[in-house]
Amino acid sequence: IINLNSIGPYGEKILNKRKTIIVDLMDLPTCSHAFKLTEVDYHALKKADAVFAWSKAIEIYLRRLGIKTFYLPYGLDLELFDPIKIGSKIFFENYPQAEGKIVIGYSGGMWFRNGKDVLGVEKILKAYKIIEETYKDDVMLVIQTSDKVLEIANKLKIKNYIYVKPTKWNDPLRQSLLHSIDIFVALATRYPPVYLAERSTYFQAMSRGKPIVVERTPGSAGLFRDGETALMARLDDVNDLAAKIALL
Question: Which whole-number Å values give the CA distances from 79 to 83, 156, 180, 181, in the listed order?
Fold first, then answer.
């Protein structure tokens, strides 16, 4: 039996001890900000015969708790998602104002908890504002996420930006958008499910074959090599994020 959550093994082991229980664990959604599992999750995961963690950081964390855990990276199926194959034509046909610019961008969600976006999307706008003040009309911000980001862009008085409405994750327009972005900015926060995760957005950004600036967390550090597969900025340091973008 394969469980996609941490609670299932507890009941299933009680009902039938002969079953082999495998947990497929993308992140730790119930982990507290003190990085402690709930008691129910801890005992449930201990009951499992094995846990497949989608990040090295989660594997290390759970192994330290005595939970039998193996690293299973998320990866990406290039038959379903290949921005290089799609190319830039679709994006520039829809947004010709981006042509000839250095395109800095982000495509992904905004994830709200208690009214706060725990993915930290606001930081790319603040960093871009610094970049725009130096490079003026040579740069363009392209951002595809919740329309809540528009209020932030207007508040910061950002001049050169394109907002793209969310689409299906592998929509041709989104893949073309990703291919057209010269510098992709991958964000994070200290919210445990984000802080420890190797997010699917990271793999999608890597599939572009172009530069990435990523905030350093245990999750991102398990996937990227600083200066080789990405430039890593200090977490929650907007000035460092802008400096890494400017370097590229």
Answer: 11, 39, 19, 21
